[in-house]
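Example record

One chain of 253 residues, shown exactly as stored in the release files.
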Amino acid sequence: MNNIEPNTIRANFSRLTAAQKPSRGAPLYSLMVNRPLGRVFAATAHRLGLAPNHVTVISAIFTFTGLVMIATIAPGWLAAVLITATLVIGYALDAADGQLARLRGGGTLTGEWLDHVIDALKTATLHLAVLAMFFRLELPEFWLIVALVFAATDVVHFAGMLLTDLLTRNAQARLGAPGAAPQNGSTLMSVLKLPTDYGVMSFSFLLLAVPVVFQWFYLALALANFVYLLLVLRVWYRRLGVLDHALAGRLPH
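Predicted structure tokens for this chain:
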């Protein structure tokens, strides 16, 4: 009997669906749209013989094409559609590279490094592209400050998330304790975290068809993300404090 699973898009998608990672309270857009779309791209990429790093690079091409358009072309209906499409596809491909790695039997350190470096560059430049657009539109300085604060907020959140995860895993290894079991988050938490989702930010650029509407929605997202950052920094600090206490208890006296 031949036990080799067929390499078809449908079969690959089914395998990925069965092996999908728990939600753990991820933002609703990621759960309902981005991960399923990423599975389609991952299943297709596997059928075409692409490696995860290929998908990561293709994702970056779409994403940074969108960022360049934000910074350089005039807002309007066409710009709104093109920018949103490139960012949404880029984000879905960003979800696809990890899923493709799992489909192929596991990822690599270099693949994870490349993915995080590109994510860091995207995080650092998205709001700078918006800043450039606001500057070209000759908006008051207030809007330039909003873009700068949003940029700082996203960078700190991204770096804090990665560092907290790294320090937590290192502490757990030193304690000889297994990592915390993944848990599904609540639907309410997924909804509340929507403003922090890159997918929502991507779709917000559809509002560039009416730039003033985009400005105020962007301000609302900036405020929501800033408040969320303040809350989650406290959670992360307390979590690491618990691990500090546990590690201190294991030191020889």
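Notes: The mean pLDDT is 87.
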